[in-house]
Structures are given as C-alpha cells and as structure tokens.
Amino acid sequence: QVPLVESGGGLVQAGGSLRLSCASSRDIVSIVAWGWYRQAPGKERELVAMLTRGHLKYGDTMKGRFTFSTDYGKNTVYLQMDSLKPEDTAVYYCNARGNIGTEVYDDWGQGTQVTVSS
C-alpha cells in the first residue's frame, strides 16, 4: 500500500487557483509532521508549507497565497493555492513524518505537476 497519495495538480492560468490533496494510509496519530514541498526544473526542492506539533509554517513566497488545511477524519491534508504565478510551476510533493513504536518513517508522495501559464 502506497503510504501517501497526492492528487489535484494540473494546468492553470496565472491568477488562477488549484487545490492539492494528500491522503495518508498511516495511523493519523503517528504522524508528527506534514509538509508540502516543490521542485522546479533545475532548482532544489523547497518548502511550501509544514505543520508540526500545531505549528504551521509557509515558505516566504507562498505566504498569503497558499493555505494548508487538514481533514484528520479522512487522513488527508490539502494545499489551496490562489493567485498562482508562472514561477509556482513545479512538481509538488507531500511529506509525512512520524513514528510507530521504534519505527521512524518519512513518507513522500509521488509528486503532482502544477503548471501555471502566463
């Protein structure tokens, strides 16, 4: 079973919106941190948003445009992206870290492409 499954990427015009979803098959209480990251061609992977121990942090260029939310009943987190810019074009990855007993895990989604046209 794939631990993290992402959905919701696609092509959108500048100024538009997309919502990404990430569903985990892990026991929700074992997850210590959720995160969204992105990687554009030729660039390093960068933080988009992270939730850990009740603290939510956004990457500097996403503040005010992106919103991280959770639905723990569905073991799912979301990334609402508004006012999208061409420079937001990247593959977006979901991440979940936690532990079950002595087992520490660091799960990554398969990645979903977001393309913003000008």
Oligomeric form of this entry? single chain
Our measurement of the CA-to-CA distance between the termini, rounded to an integer number of angstroms, reads 38 Å
Q: Hey, roughly how much beta strand do the residues contain? A: over 45%
Number of helices: 0
The low-pLDDT segments are none
Mean pLDDT: 94
Number of strands: 11
Main sheet record? 7 strands, mixed
Shape assignment: elongated
Q: What integer value in Å does the Rg equal? A: 14 Å
Query: Secondary-structure element sequence?
Result: EEEEEEEEEEE
**Share of helix among residues?**
under 10%
Derived from helix and strand composition plus strand pairing, the structural class reads: mainly beta
Describe this entry's structure for a reader:
By secondary structure, this protein is mainly beta. 0% of the residues lie in helices and 59% in strands. The protein has no helices and eleven strands. The chain has strands at residues 4-7, 10-13, 18-24, 31-39, 46-52, 55-58, 66-71, 76-81, 90-100, 103-108, 112-117. The strands form two sheets. Strands 2, 4, 5, 6, 9, 10 and 11 form a seven-stranded mixed sheet that branches. A hairpin with a 2-residue loop joins strand 9 and strand 10. The chain is elongated, with a radius of gyration of 14 Å. The model has no long low-confidence stretch (mean pLDDT 94).
